């Protein structure tokens, strides 16, 4: 988020740093953009197939504006449409960014648990707060999964000390981080 800091790093280490993000204006020579729409849609489809319930959706933006995160939001809108699901305001959490936001979000998600078993959070920080908040409310939760090694490290450092539960680190489904072939990825997710 700090463009001056990023520019300084790129200048200090030419050709040694590659940025991976949704859209990085001004850094095209050293960046790879990832398909946020496809990654979000794949995650939503996975959750829907696994649990056959509506998916709670958390975004760091307002939902209908075309801003950072807009492609992810459009993926959720298209997901709902393609499955004949109506947008349910109770299942939509907007402008959430931090661990504290995730903790607060847990209060709104908890009453939805009879209707849904799945949450898609657009932020690792929000996910960590949400997990911690739900574990306080539902101490019977025995399994936490993260997607990708970065999310696993983040959870281990920030949430595991609070929750006491180690996370199962699943391979990242992101095409930008694809180190696992699809059949192995599918097996790992089904096993979790």
Rg from Cα: 17 Å
Q: Could you tell me the strand content as a percent range?
A: 5-15%
Structural class label: alpha/beta
With helices defined by DSSP (H or I, 4 residues minimum), what is the helix count?
8
The count of DSSP E runs of length 2 or more, i.e. the number of strands, is: 7
Identify the strand order in the major beta sheet. Answer: 4-3-5
Q: Uncertain regions: pLDDT < 50 for 5+ in a row?
A: none
Q: What is the mean predicted local confidence, pLDDT? A: 78
Overall outline: globular
Distinctive features:
192 residues; three-stranded parallel sheet; two-stranded parallel sheet; 8 helices; 7 strands; 12% strand
Structure description:
By secondary structure, the protein is an alpha/beta fold. The protein has eight helices and seven strands; from the N terminus they run αββαβαβαβαβααβα. The strands form three sheets. Strands 4-3-5 form a three-stranded parallel β-sheet. The protein has a two-stranded parallel ribbon with strand order 1-2.
List the helices and strands and how they pair.
Blueprint: H1 3-12, E1 19-21, E2 31-33, H2 36-51, E3 55-58, H3 70-82, E4 92-93, H4 99-109, E5 118-121, H5 124-137, E6 144-147, H6 149-158, H7 160-163, E7 167-170, H8 182-191
Parallel strand pairs: 1-2, 3-4, 3-5, 6-7
